[in-house]
Amino acid sequence: MRIAFAEDDAQLRTSVARGLREAGHEVTVAETGPEALRLVRAGGHDVLLLDLLLPGMGGLEVCRTVRREGHGIPILMLTALDAVEDRIAGLEAGGDDYLTKPFAFGELVARLRALTRRHRGPGAALLVAGALALDPERREARVGEQPLALTAREFDILAHLVRQAGRVVSRGDLMTAVWEEAPGSYSNIIDVYAARIRRKLEGIPGAPVLTTVRGAGFRLDAG
Q1: Distance between CA 114 and CA 62 in Å, rounded?
Q2: Which pLDDT tens digit goes with each residue over 98-132?
Q3: pTM (predicted TM-score)
Q4: Burial of 58 per CB tally in 10 Å (0-12, 13-18, 19+)
Q5: Do residues 29 and 13 lie in contact, with contact meaning Cβ atoms separated by under 8 Å?
Q6: Rounded (10°) CA dihedral 103, 31, 19, 81
Q7: Could you tell me which of 222, 96, 73, 103 has the C-alpha nearest to residue 153?
Q8: Residues contacting 106, CB < 8 A, separation 6+
Q9: H or E segment at 133?
Q10: Neighbours of 14 (CB within 10 A)
Q11: Is 142:128 a contact under the CB 8 Å cutoff?
């Protein structure tokens, strides 16, 4: 993996970067928010490992700017803040996953690998629901002729819903399919992603409709 790593804590930055390099990955480090943004703009990285409390420009603003500029790089956020509200804020800003400090190095590597593996995606046929078409190999989404900008995690969630179009998919099923783990205490984060995806689909002619089925999960119906 080619990893852009933004962290202002020198000791943590040095130890994590060393561990990742020893594991065979390429790591480019940044100490501030503006530096992190420059790394993303320069391209050439598979994933951004982003601390939320950065000087110059906070991680949330870096995340928002990256997504506003149309960069699809997967973003794994690091935060010492463990409140659900803080996690939701990071995901709302455009992050794909988060890891709370302190963390086990093995879990960090596993999260990074999962994000990059899904972002690259194996060769596969188009996934279609109404006028929506997802290309798993190129990680591109369109509704008719209109491109649909999705983060890595949004793409994975929408792809799973398209595969189950017309059926109710529980939050637990989505957690297991997309996060590759059993539903945990933060499975309500799925609702944040669903709301983001719904906003992006609304108002586009022919787009499928994403409905929240109270107490059951979500259903994607072809438009």
Answers
A1: 22
A2: 888 889 999 999 889 888 876 555 445 688 888 89
A3: 0.64
A4: middle
A5: yes
A6: 0
A7: 96
A8: none
A9: strand 132-135
A10: 12
A11: no
